[in-house]
């Protein structure tokens, strides 16, 4: 039986990834946690405001992937791209950031 990834582990990895791949420029969300994501999503990020004044309130990773540290961390990195580029949705800005993270090895061993 696999051990579930904890909320505390998500917070620890967020801080580590923030330092390693985002130069520590991402704010710390009020919550980083597992829960029931809406509409069948694997993860979601909630913002208060938008643009340069936006504040990340919550990063939620679906309990459906909590059994796998790799899937949980891949979902966390995906959400961190949204934090880094809050207006990018899944467009070109998001894709550029994702490619940068792939080049820098952020997803190595996860997918």
Strand tally: 3
Task: Give the quaternary arrangement of the chains.
Answer: single chain
Strands ordered across the widest β-sheet: 1-3-2
Quote the average pLDDT: 90
CATH class: Alpha Beta
The CATH topology: Zincin-like
Structural class: alpha+beta
Number of helices: 3
Annotation keywords:
globular; 3 strands; 111 residues; 39% helix; 3 helices; single chain; alpha+beta; Zincin-like; three-stranded mixed beta sheet
Summarize it:
By secondary structure, the protein is an alpha+beta fold. It contains three helices and three strands.
How would you characterize this protein structure?
The protein is α+β, with helices and mostly antiparallel strands. It has helices at residues 7-21, 69-84, 92-103; strands at 31-35, 43-48, 55-62. A three-stranded mixed beta sheet has the order 1-3-2. Helix 1 packs across helix 2 (69-84).
